[in-house]
Amino acid sequence: MTTVVRIDPAESAVFSEFYDAYRRSFNREFDQPYTAVELAIDMVPDDYNSTVAVLARDSEGVVVGGAWAELPLKDNLTFAYGEVFVVPEQRRHGHGSVLVEALADACAGAGRSTLLCEGAWGVDDQEAPAKQFAEQAGFTLEIMDAHRELLLPAKLPALVIDSAYEIRSWRGACPDELIDGYADVRRLMVQEAPSGDAGLENEHWDAARVRSEEAKWEKSGRVPQVSVAIAGDGSVVGHTQLIFPRDSVEVYQWDTLVLSSHRGHGLGLALKVFTMHEAADLLDGRRRIHTYNAASNQHMIAVNETMGFRQVAWLAEYIRTI
């Protein structure tokens, strides 16, 4: 029998149990889990997101898994972005199914009608238990993303910047004079990149949210190296983010976007190469960079492969009406 209860992640003892189960459940070789500090900070509600979380125990009271969902508060108000985990030795005992239903109920109670979760598996995994579990739990595939990694140190292609553009980079806080343009590019990610047919809308981004994100990054020990492409009229037309978690050998290439009206000038590749040059000291001693993009995004795939990234896994985005 599985017992599931709602939890407050801010309670340290409960979060410790929650994180311990999450950490033990994360046994895939092609990625690493969040640190306890990262996850704790990410789950703190703010003006832009709230969180629901549940913890599962077996009949003897032993923690067997958990789940949480992020609920956006400024956009996509019918969506919840969830994660479900079960410790390896307790899988295939029905705990995951109970957790999914508990998470769906909690999200529905918060006024959400669509639960979006991800499943990951190695690029050569023919069985893909995550895929089987998602389908059995009533989810349908929304979009496939490819997970690629670049082993470090890496030999980079030459940096070529179209003379009609400038690239600027910063570490930590975005310069005040760029923040509005940077926020606007962040806002356009959904409409400018493949995102499936679920009906996601552009996220709310403004200067205040950029500052809120930067504050969270600092608290969680993440060091960002961010670069933007600037057109001749001074407008920000593209960006990329390299994120360096503290006390880790991993690096994460998060959002990369060039506005459609400025594509064809090599800006995607230039942004990534420029950012790696700017972050050379942070890259020293790190093992690999992870990046994710829609499997249909052939342009970004070509950019990543030119840099030396190679696919190691699939990341499937699944949706379920709740």
From TrEMBL:
Domain N-acetyltransferase: from-to ranges: 5-157, 165-322
Protein name, as recorded: GNAT superfamily N-acetyltransferase
